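Dear colleague,

Thank you for sharing your sequence with our group. We've completed the structure prediction you requested, and as agreed, I am returning the results in plain text so they can be pasted directly into your records. Please verify that the sequence below matches your submission; if there's any discrepancy, let me know and we will rerun it promptly.
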Amino acid sequence: MTEEKAIAHSNDDQHLVETTVSSEIMAQGKMLTVRYDEARLPNGVISGREYVTHPGAVVVIALTQTGGVVLERQFRYPLKQVFIELPAGKIDAGEPVLTTGQRELLEETGYTAQDWVKLGIQHPCIGYSNEVIHIYLATGLSLGEHARDIDEAMDVFVWPFERVMQAIDAGDITDSKTMSAMLLAERYLRKHPLPGVQV
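Please find the predicted structure tokens below.
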């Protein structure tokens, strides 16, 4: 087998793919849907798959001119705990992904940004949800008034980039989207340095 054929064979995932045989809704919420599917496995066996469908979300690393990262502290009900996070929010039906990031940043923090760079995506819970989180770096910030929903309560503050990374190392930031986004931002900023931003 040639090296080219070996690479092509290693990239062929068909021997891993599961195909849907049937699908039903187990529970329907305002944002989330719980489904139960029967899937045919590569070996022909039929197995059940429970999962949550999600509209997707956007997380934003918003950097001030001095290299500070805009953060939030908010209570997350499922874990009954306050978390430090980057601004983020779900994608509304039919809404462009970038528009979601711009809207959520303004609504939650009061900041707008001139420049936006998409750094990538994250799949936060591949074992039980189809959620995709889009990651953006936002710079050229201006601060105005936030427009939070009536059910949103949070503290907004700014930390130096390095302090955020230290908090991740120390286990003080454990939110997966924030950790993934900061890692991608750090890698991007090492290749594309910005004045005043120390990574």
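Summary note from our side: The longest helix spans residues 176-191.

Kind regards,
the structure core
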